[in-house]
What does this fold into?
Amino acid sequence: MIVELGHFVLILALFVATIQTVMPLVGAHYRWTGWMAVGEAAASVQLLLVATSFAALTYAFVTSDFSVALVVNNSHTLKPMLYKVAGVWGNHEGSLLLWSLILAAFGASVAWFGSNLPPTLRARVLAVQGSIGVAFLLFMLLTSNPFLRLAVPPFNGQDLNPLLQDPGLAFHPPFLYLGYVGLSVSFSFAVAALIEGRVDAAWGRWVRPWTLAAWVFLTIGIALGSWWAYYELGWGGFWFWDPVENASFMPWLIAAALLHSAIVVEKREALKAWTILLAILAFGFSLIGTFIVRSGVITSVHAFANDPERGVFILLILGFFMGGALLLFAFRAGAMEAKGLFAPVSRESALVVNNLLLSVSCMVVFVGTIWPLVAELLWDRKLSVGEPFFNAAFTPFMVVLALLLPLGAILSWKRALIGRPFRALIPALVLAVSLCLLAFAMQTGQSALGPIGLGLGAWVVFGAVIDLWLRSGRGAMAERMGRILRLPRADWGKFTAHTGFGVTVFAVAAMMAWQVEDIRTMRVGESYDLKGYTVTLTSVDKETGPNYFTTMARMDISHNGAFVATVYPEKRIYPVAGMPTTEAGIDYGFTRDLYMVIGDAQDDGSWAVRSYFKPFANWIWGGCMLMALGGLISLADRRYRVAAGARARAVKAVPAE
Amino acid sequence: MIYRMIRAITLSLTLVATPVLAVQPNEVLSDPVLEARARTLSKDLRCLVCRNENIDDSNADLARDLRLLVRERLVAGDSDDAAIAYIVDRYGEYVLLNPTSKGANLLLWIAGPLMLILGGAIAGTYVRRRRGLAEVGPNELSQDEEKRLAEILKD
It folds into this structure.
């Protein structure tokens, strides 16, 4: 009954979304206040309906209702409660429902928090948002209904893919979707502005918080996924350039470019057409990502639901929204340009370079991702494009970006002199270069990657510190410190996010250059040396978990005779899904992780053991979290609220036509 | 019924194939230089039955066979290129995670620099135009304009 209710309200939601698309759009065209106002109500109702539907599906999972096909395929009575809930979105149909829920939630947020927007713009934004809702609800109801019943329910389910039964991964998809779908708001703003025919500083200010929020979510989602891969897949890799990872990385890169160019629109009223284009493309790449994951055209670790019919449907959605938006862009963008003038050496130009690097690097990832498809279609060549290609083709862009960032970040707006900011950065340069040389001297015969990464990371981090320092003006030390503390949150956000970028650059290089690996067989009771740590295999036991069997080793780690940690690497088998997983035993540390994996029993009674010394591993995700935190701090900046209030009054003062 | 049988069979198969570590201790060559070369080569070769995994990281049996083959070739005295060529001959271009730059693939490799140059040119033009307009701003006139102004004022 509840399941049918879920299905029913989903159909209702489709109708409401259709109304949300049509009425405000018509209303905005003819300036009919009543019709425009329908958008807000419809957005709220749509959220309510989709949320009810989502709750119904969650109920089916929590109560293990095995008359529902989706529950049978993805759940099991023995599964812990957290994963019963996470199972709702651990599959194609349920994740689409989550997608629609988040889409509706963003639409409703625009309705609720958008009271400062001009009524026609708000109506159009809600209409575009509604149309995306129509597309996805149709997609779900026509090809991927999560509420299908089985005529003969089985006694138990087939369990969720055991790799997905993990706290890190339980929350990875929701964050990613918050990011993907959040970009739909930027898209809606862009299309609405194109229909409206007007982009001004205020538009830049409105669109930026939404982009920032989406980007923050995307950052967290990607970091969670990468962290999960690190501890779960058993060899401590953190990024594989898998098509699906690329699918999330491309919108991230474009969103990063977008939130920088939106600053230029907001502060200087330049780069308008370009910013609109980025907003369209960012959501476009989200849709492309959806297509890659769900169509199965490009095989990858994550691809679920390889169904050509669904692929075609997503391609239609992609074609409709991108084609429509870009067509609109082609007609209207010419009218957008721009008041702000600037010299070739200026903050504006620096942000143009930032945008150039970020978007070209995104296109490199895109070309690499679809190249196997292109090569097979056009030249009948079956080939692979993997990690080595991306490392070689993508990394240089990030290196250049990191090199230019500190300088670009402190150039003044409009017209800058290159000499003074460069002199201000000399301390950072000296520190970075000496750290680089020091690292180079301390390592012998290893690749230059580590020292270069350290130098680059340090350059970006110290550059961010100097940026903050310069913002404090002149005067005595104490005075300047006081002023730094009172700087707007946007400045602190910028500092935090740029620092995070530097930290991640360094950590990735450090991990790739300085990791130590050890592979051996050993008996229980034996010890070996791993980069100065003594590792002892104390015991290996068979045990039983709630829904799996495990072979669990106990390994004691000591350093110069002093106890460091005990870790328990496991090898699990989930009998229902028939899948093995490895659970690495990791001793997390500030400057290094010790990463232990237990393998098979050998014929002579010893065990295969693989272990790693991973320098600065946590810094990779620490850097990502700093970037996300920086975004959040920026989001809390006063100007998004103060200006909001001022504009609300201004809008009310204008009589409705 | 048949579907269930297939499921049962695949289930038992996966249960038999318990997880193994990627590179097994007994695969490691005694010569550390050769082993290091083998590891480097393995990172660029695709495990054909996996999804986007190299044979160095993969747990699949086929990956193990390939790892052993790489080591065999190196022990037999092949250079890195010869060992890779040997494997590409047998398994096709698909096995290379690092695509060659032969033929149309050249496009893949130069796509990045090409787009950067193109984008850079567009951005450069844009920035120059912004400046061009800036010189017409209220405060400054370009030299040409200065000259024209002087001529106009003379009349």
Observations:
- Chain A touches chain B through 68 residues (CB under 8 Å).
- Residues 300-305, 642-657 of chain A have pLDDT under 50 and may be disordered.
- Residues 1-164 of chain A form a domain with the Four Helix Bundle (Hemerythrin (Met), subunit A) fold (CATH 1.20.120).
